[in-house]
Amino acid sequence: MNDQSSRRRFLKLSVAGVIGMTLGGKTLVNPAQASDLPHLEEDDAQASALKYTHKSPYEDRNCSTCVLLQGEKGDRWRPCQLFPGKLVSSKGWCSAWAG
């Protein structure tokens, strides 16, 4: 890899990182709208693909401890970045869980 393409790659990754850090703390769903969203069903195609379940099989890993979950802490059903337009159980879990 030559110096110029290395520099371009570095700049692209740097810009992407800054954008990610900037947007990382933002809630993508308006809390006022969140309560109007339907609950995610376990038999939903995307939910099935990610092995989503309303009750986590793990003691220490559930949606409420996942970085992808949005909304107000303490709410039983909250928006998740993986399932736009639907609410997931804060006691749930899927294979994309990230702590």
From TrEMBL:
Quote any Pfam family the record assigns.
HIPIP
The alphabetical list of record keywords is: 4Fe-4S, Electron transport, Iron, Iron-sulfur, Metal-binding, Signal, Transport
The High potential iron-sulfur proteins family profile domain covers which part of the protein?
Answer: 34-99
GO BP annotations listed: aerobic electron transport chain
- Source organism's superkingdom? Bacteria
Q: Name one GO molecular function term.
A: electron transfer activity
The protein's job, in short, is:
Specific class of high-redox-potential 4Fe-4S ferredoxins. Functions in anaerobic electron transport in most purple and in some other photosynthetic bacteria and in at least one genus (Paracoccus) of halophilic, denitrifying bacteria.
NCBIfam families assigned: TAT_signal_seq
Name of the molecule in the record: Twin-arginine translocation signal domain-containing protein
Print the organism lineage: Bacteria, Pseudomonadati, Pseudomonadota, Gammaproteobacteria, Vibrionales
